[in-house]
Structure formats: structure tokens, C-alpha cells
Write a structure and sequence with these properties.
Radius of gyration: 13 Å
Number of strands: 0
Distance between the termini: 27 Å
Number of helices: 2
Strand content: under 5%
Number of domains: 1
Order of helices and strands: HH
Shape: flat
Length: 63
């Protein structure tokens, strides 16, 4: 079981996306709690709402 993802993982993904010229399509958010996938329900709902708004309006939400 993975208990946490190192912060470097975020940078590795960003580097791969940047190599492909797709940074406009990447949004990364961090949660300051120990563990892997420790999102609270309101955080998940908020992120899904942000994604839907991004798709509908073309305006990228804040990280």
C-alpha cells in the first residue's frame, strides 16, 4: 500500500507534460495531509466542479 507520494512525483509529471507542449492542460493541486489520496469529500467535489467549469468555459482554475 502506498502511504504517500513524494513531491518529486508532481515535478516529474509536469516535466513530461511540458516536453509535449501541453502545460495548458495540466493543473496540479496538493493536499497537506499525510498519506496517498487523503482528499476529503468537499475537496473532491470542488475539484470536479472546477474541472466541469474549466471544460465549459475554457478558463483554467487556480491551482
Amino acid at each position: 500500500m502506498i502511504r504517500s507520494c513524494p513531491p518529486s512525483t508532481k515535478g516529474l509529471l509536469a516535466a513530461k507534460v511540458a516536453q509535449r507542449g501541453a502545460m495548458a492542460n495540466l493543473l496540479q493541486r496538493s493536499i497537506s495531509r499525510y498519506g496517498h489520496c487523503t482528499f476529503a469529500i468537499p475537496e473532491m467535489i470542488g475539484s470536479l466542479n472546477d474541472l466541469a467549469t474549466w471544460v465549459d468555459t475554457g478558463v483554467k482554475p487556480a491551482a
